[in-house]
Amino acid sequence: MNQAKHSFRHRVRAAGSLIFAAAIVFSLTGCARTNSNDAASSAAASAGPSTGSPSPAAQQTDSPPSAVPTASSSATASPAPAALLDPAKLQPVFGFASETGSHIMVTREEEGAGEQMKSLNTAIGNGGQVLAVKLEKWQTGNENNNGRELANNIPNLSGYLFKVEGGAAMRDETYVLVDSAVFPQAALLELQPADPAGPQLAARDPLRKSVETAKGRKIQAAWKLAGLGPDRQLYLVQFVRQDKDMLFSLVLEEDGKLSFKDYPAEITDNEYSVWRVDDGGEVNPQMFSLLFAAQSADGLLLGLNWWGAEGVNSFFLQQEGNGFIELAIEYGRYISPL
């Protein structure tokens, strides 16, 4: 398998090693992302279902109120965004929420970056939730750190601690931190997340036929992930295995047009870890959640979380033609149960 197909696994391992010098390794053994993309196909990596305890994404269904309006606060169709987000202005600063949702911890930045951190006044995640935040302090970790980037370990971690002002973040959820001066909130789309425990698309659903025709491949399972604004839908589709070739896709449907982000993999010596470690060779909607969806000059920009058995990865997909490309910005957290 070539180096490109293993790139995402190595990037996640590198991110894990920065946090856990004490021999904690963030392992992703499945086949990873590729970056090819065309009218019917684009390649990257993906997440598989956790075989351990349920992931936080699967456990959380209710979002707490926030001090400012959220992109998913209403089920009514919203007008097109009045502003456009420039992906080049996104900063690679991510954090995760404390047990009470009163704080967000950022662990990737080194001590001494306080001036940069002060400019970040907004946290966005948990299906488009928008929260006002303010840098509170740099926190030095201690010997009780268990190596997990989870809410219950925040008191023991080194990093920048942000105070959530006037609202509450969702416990253990990932948030991207931004400067509101360069991230226009009007560019955010209203999200209507589907029930991750909901049924698959019916066999007679016309979308299934359209996807099978476009890809020339039979569907094993398909689910709706979310509505993105008034006229777009995002789906997760796993295709029937072809010998050693595996494939699933994120599929955007808008006015009958389909855009794909493909995640191919090849089964080698371990059929139980295909895309992610211990994924069982399957994906399901409980493994995916949205940070946000926004309108850019080139199309949609999607921020997604991908939950696996040992960790969660966050990344951005930029619409390009009939597909998506993955931005260089990404984030990974090691959350394997103790």
Task: Name the features.
mainly beta; 338 residues; 4 helices
Mind explaining what this structure looks like?
It contains four helices and 15 strands. It is mostly beta strands. It has a six-stranded antiparallel beta barrel. A hairpin with a 5-residue loop joins strand 9 and strand 10 (245-254).
Quick summary:
This protein has 338 residues and is mainly β. It is built from four helices and 15 strands.
Helix content: under 10%
Number of helices: 4
C-alpha geometry: globular
Strand order of the largest sheet: 1-2-5-4-3-6
Low-confidence segments, given as residue ranges, are 1-78
Radius of gyration: 19 Å
What distance separates the N and C termini?
32 Å
Element pattern in H and E: HHEEHEEEEEHEEEEEEEE
Strand content: 25-35%
* E-strand count: 15
Task: Reconstruct the topology from this structure.
Blueprint: H1 7-19, H2 56-59, E1 94-97, E2 103-106, H3 114-118, E3 122-125, E4 129-139, E5 159-165, E6 174-178, E7 191-193, H4 206-215, E8 219-228, E9 232-239, E10 245-254, E11 257-266, E12 288-296, E13 299-307, E14 311-320, E15 323-334
